[in-house]
Design goal:
By secondary structure, the protein is α/β, with parallel strands linked by helices. About 40% of the residues lie in helices and about 20% in strands. The strands form two sheets. It has a six-stranded parallel beta sheet with strand order 1-4-3-2-5-6, sandwiched between helices. The structure holds pantoate.
Length: about 280
């Protein structure tokens, strides 16, 4: 496995693989890798001859009051995680390599970014789309893999790829959870023991919603209240949002009469956690 930090080195390797007729799967990450990332790598490995993992904590997608400085980083541990999964190349650039001092071009997907995290984190998806476009152009993959945990990010990237004609297949992979149901996330490492116990309330609220739906409940207001009540019982938890939106448009829905994404963001202590589930209308 190669670990490179320069764009030129990635291009050199990618050119050789393409010349040899090999396909490339890309797993873009911000590092501090966990089993969720490794499941993306496993899918990439299964579908492609070569796998590239990018590790870059992208300053552009963090708001001024967010956790850019404290975001967990451990490249040595990440190398082991990638090696275990048979990754061929890690691209771990510096911010200077990615953004030259005169950098001034952006990719901004409209509409889908108005709601959910787009509304709560202004500029976040512009940062994500800009860096992902750059990573696509640097690594020229056939397929790129993203987790369903970041459901809005996945929808936004699919729209960007359609709109801008990137010749790349975007593959969404299922949420990977801890044994108690907490979705795996690099940010889980911020949680104290008590916060970690409290954090299971996101998944419990999803379970509750799914039980209500299984019993026939279709009113979003009723399901939303029950989820809210459950989370509010946790003194360490503070709801940022719980939203039910149409799976394609990400516009709010009031009844479960279409494919629906239920997405939630909850602060546990100072840590903002997200989770979601999809209701498929038959
Ligand atoms: O999901 C992430 O880790 C990041 O948003 C991504 C896609 C690597 C872009 O920085």
């Amino acid at each position: 496995m190669k670990v490179v930090t320069s764009i030129a080195d990635v291009r050199h390797q990618v050119k050789a693989w393409h010349l040899a007729g090999e396909t490339i799967g890309l797993v873009p990450t911000m590092g501090y890798l966990h089993e969720g990332h490794q499941s993306l790598m496993a899918s990439a490995k299964k579908d492609n001859q070569r796998v590239i993992v990018t590790i870059f904590v992208n300053p552009m997608q963090f708001g001024p009051k967010e956790d850019l400085a404290s975001y967990p980083r451990d490249l040595e541990r990440d190398k082991i995680a990638c090696e275990q999964m048979g990754v061929d190349l890690i691209f771990a650039p510096t911010a200077e390599e990615m953004y030259t001092p005169c950098f001034n071009s952006y990719v901004d997907v409209n509409g889908l970014t108005d709601a959910l995290c787009g509304e709560k984190r202004p500029g976040h998806f512009k940062g994500v789309c800009t860096v992902v476009s750059k990573l696509f152009n640097i690594t020229c993959p056939d397929r790129a893999y993203f987790g369903q945990k970041d459901a809005q990010q996945l929808a936004v990237i699919k729209q960007m790829v359609r709109d801008l004609n990137f010749d790349i297949e975007i593959i969404g992979c299922p949420i990977v959870r801890e044994t108690d149901g907490l979705a795996k996330s690099s940010r889980n490492s911020y949680l104290s023991d008590n916060e970690r116990k409290a954090a299971v309330c996101l998944y419990q609220s999803i379970e509750l919603a799914n039980t209500m739906i299984a019993k026939g409940e279709r009113s979003v207001a009723t399901i939303h209240s029950a989820m809210q009540l459950l989370i509010e019982q946790q003194s360490l938890a503070k709801i940022d949002y719980i939203e039910f939106v149409d799976l394609c448009s990400l516009k709010p829905v009031s009844q479960l009469t279409q494919d629906t994404l239920c997405a939630l963001a909850v602060y546990v202590g100072k840590t903002r956690l997200i989770d979601n589930f999809i209701y498929h209308f038959h």
